[in-house]
Write a structure and sequence with these properties.
alpha+beta, Chitinase A, domain 3, 4-stranded antiparallel sheet, 25 helices, about 650 residues, about 45% helix, Triger factor/SurA peptide-binding fold
Length: about 650
């Protein structure tokens, strides 16, 4: 929501309350030929009742006046055609798109997913997987081959074969095996399927769900994701580590190190640990001995990270640190030896603290499709859906591999104009689907045509269902209709008020000057003095400064006489001051002449009053902000007066009196 729209709504922002006992569909007032119901009035009235304050007749009348003024401005904006301007239509459409989004996600489903995400965020899991790659658009026959193979692998695991050995042998995740060094990368040791630790949102949703469902040491059934099939084995579940900041002292063991080199590294890290135990300074040892030169100059501190950012041995060591500044015994990882010190651990938030963030993550994640699917199912139940499968199958022979190069021509579907499906009484044709295919084609890997068409058809059907629902939001949901009306009126109000009041007051310099001349007596200075305040670091120089003042030397010349290029011992603050503008102006007696000296922490201060000024009008440039604001109020009142002459207003007093 933009500032300009908030500003428009704030023009109606009175904190009132109402417990209206009336028919919301009754006409409360008529402005020109437009009827305004109690519902519209009460809707905005209650929305601004943030503190639920009780109603009284005076505040109700004040609110009614504001509401009428608001509607008068909107009516004039409509008569001027501002609601037909392309920029207005585009802006309102943008707001509507954002406001409509919640209606395409089932709230109960999203709330359930948010709670599930929070529950999972309290747990860290260490697991391994064996992976078989499968294109998400693979043919059914290819899918069956992959599924059968993953089932056979699972049978071997269930019969007792080693998970790590099978992962090295058969997993299509390349990280399972050692990867030799080349010109682009160093040697990388294989993880044997071990994915380390992770928590919610670290894995794709089907994988995550399977892992959180499994018991420790249990092997999953085949898990299908967009990447292929997985077998998952959970090794550990424990309370979440959360986000931490640690420092480490690192002794690297490079690939290819001899047994003797590795032993020497172990002995060295043990000796460093012993020095720490005997009271040696952590930062000094890190600077001297750590092989992580990127962090050694700052005490070994690493950027804050979560559980999925480090190898599992490193994470497990952190789990055992309870207090800040605690450090581990030497920890061996695939990179070498570490001593790890805990610097900071984020407090574990409660549900209410992170509910909003979790909801945003859920909505952006693939798991939100569950909430979208619930809405789609409801739309089908409400309106009905009739599909013509034969008409869909007509696309199988005419969609060619050129579509995977982004070069399929919709002419290929010429003559296909039969109904494809029908939502309620709205028919969608084959031609519309052909245009959708052409519009959304892109360069991508070649797929099975039938599977591709089926997926595109499903996406097109779902989009059309949601578009149909979108077209009927205002008639189905009164609160959405009211909200859109508020946004529409708010934008119109801003644009016209800016033109007639805000910008006009700034641009109309002649009008502003005339307004000032007519009201200048309302913008008065109180008593002031024309004075200078002298601050000296060296009190001994005060006599010289006083002497210069008595001879009539200007402040600028006094500064030149007292200060040098090497030393600035005098500062002078000159001008016109009100009593509260400065501590020393307030302390001195307001008489022409030089005051006594005040001793401060940095030297001495005294004041020279040149003239005591009587109250006088402020100049326009001295109070431009305040005068401009008053001029805006003046313009708005004059504008409202003219609007009331142009548009007749009739309030139904009988209906109005029921609103209490």
């Amino acid at each position: 929501m933009t500032f300009r729209f908030l500003l428009s709504l704030s023009l109606l922002g009175i904190l009132l309350g109402t417990q209206a006992q009336t028919n919301y569909d009754e006409v409360l007032m008529t402005i020109a030929d437009s009827d305004i119901t109690v519902r519209e009035f009460i809707s905005i009235y209650q929305k601004n009742n943030i503190q639920n304050q009780p109603i009284d007749q005076q505040s109700l009348n004040e609110y009614l006046d504001l509401f009428i003024n608001f509607k008068l401005k909107v009516r004039e904006a409509e008569d001027m055609g501002l609601d037909t301007v392309s920029s207005f239509i585009t802006e309102l459409a943008g707001y509507r798109e954002q406001l409509a989004k919640p209606y395409f996600m089932d709230k109960a489903t999203i709330d359930q997913l948010v709670q599930e995400a929070y529950d999972r965020s309290t747990i860290d899991i260490r697991a391994s997987h064996i992976f078989l790659r499968l294109n998400p658009d693979a043919l059914p026959a290819d899918t069956m081959v992959a599924l059968q193979k993953i089932k056979e692998i699972r049978e071997r695991l269930i019969s007792g074969e080693n998970f790590e050995e099978i992962a090295i042998e058969l997993s299509e995740d390349p990280s399972a095996r050692d990867r030799q060094a080349n010109s682009q990368r160093p040697f990388i040791k294989g993880n044997k399927g071990d994915l380390g630790y992770f928590t919610v949102f670290d894995m794709v949703y089907p994988f995550e769900t399977a892992a959180f469902t499994l018991e420790v040491a249990e092997i999953s059934e085949p898990v299908h994701t967009d990447y292929g099939y997985h077998l998952i084995k959970v090794y550990q579940k424990q309370p979440a580590m959360g986000k931490v900041t640690v420092a480490h002292l690192y002794q690297a063991i490079p690939k290819g190190s001899s047994a003797e080199d590795s032993l020497n590294k172990a002995l060295k890290i043990d000796s460093i640990y012993a020095m720490l135990q005997n009271g040696a300074d952590w930062d000094s040892l890190v600077l001297l001995y750590s092989d992580d030169k990127g962090s050694s100059s700052r005490g070994g501190i690493l950027p804050k990270f979560g559980v999925n950012r480090m190898v599992p041995e490193f994470i497990e060591a952190i789990y055992n640190l309870d207090e800040m500044e605690d450090y581990t015994k030497p920890v061996l990882t695939s990179y070498g030896w570490h001593i790890i010190k805990l610097k900071e651990r984020d407090a574990k938030p409660d549900f209410e603290q992170i509910k909003g963030d979790l909801k945003q993550k859920v909505i952006k994640d693939s798991r939100s499709q569950a909430g979208r699917q619930v809405v789609i199912d409801k739309i089908i139940d409400e309106y009905g859906l009739k599909q013509y499968i034969t008409e869909k199958q007509a696309f199988y022979p005419i969609v060619t591999d050129s579509i995977f190069k982004g070069k399929w021509n919709v002419v290929m579907a010429e003559g296909l104009e039969k109904p494809l499906f029908m939502i309620n009484d709205q028919v969608t044709s084959q031609k519309e689907f052909a245009e959708y295919l052409a519009k959304n084609q892109k360069k991508q890997a070649k797929q099975n045509i039938q599977s591709f068409v089926n997926k595109q058809y499903k996406d097109f059907l779902h989009e059309t269902l949601l578009m149909y629902e979108n077209m009927h939001l205002e008639e189905k949901y009164p609160e959405f209709k009211a909200l859109m009306s508020e946004y529409r009126d708010g934008i119109l109000l801003f644009d016209l008020t800016d033109k007639n009041v805000w910008s006009k007051a700034v641009k109309d310099t002649t009008g502003l000057k005339d307004f000032y001349e007519e009201h200048k007596s309302e913008y008065m200075w109180g008593p002031r003095v024309d004075a200078s305040i002298y601050t000296l670091k060296n009190p001994k120089a005060a006599t010289a400064v006083r002497s210069f003042i008595s001879t009539g030397l200007s402040d600028e010349d006094i500064l030149k006489e007292i200060n040098s290029d090497d030393e600035q011992i005098l500062t002078i603050q000159g001008g016109k001051f009100s009593r509260k503008d400065n501590l020393y102006i307030e302390k001195v007696t307001w008489e022409v002449g030089v005051s006594r000296e005040f001793t401060t922490d940095i030297g001495v201060v005294f004041v020279n009053i040149r003239e005591v000024l009587n109250p006088e009008p402020k100049q326009l440039n001295e109070a431009r902000g305040l005068i401009t604001a008053d001029y805006q109020n003046f313009l708005e009142k004059a504008w409202i007066k003219e609007l009331k002459k142009t548009y007749p207003i009739v309030v139904n007093k009988e209906v109005y009196n029921k609103i209490k």
